[in-house]
Amino acid sequence: MITGHMQLLNDWRTEVVRNSKRLYVAADGKKYNMSLQNECMRCHSNKSQFCDTCHNYAGLATGQIPYCWTCHVAPKEAK
Known about the structure:
With about 80 residues, the chain is mostly helical. The protein has helices at about 5-20, 35-45, 45-55; strands spanning about 25, 30-35. Helices cover about 45% and strands about 10% of the residues.
């Protein structure tokens, strides 16, 4: 998942937006709602821990905002 999460999110986006498919069934039969905010961020709600740490490690330019947040609302973190 770590190396392929952006491809998964892109694939989910395509399925939801272009094909109106909202349910993903994994190889093990587990079902997921194809939603960044309603599925992924439910468990990975700490943006600085999950998103920002990986983006920094991968070399995303400082101050560059991933295009996820052009449509989705970035989660508010507790201070």
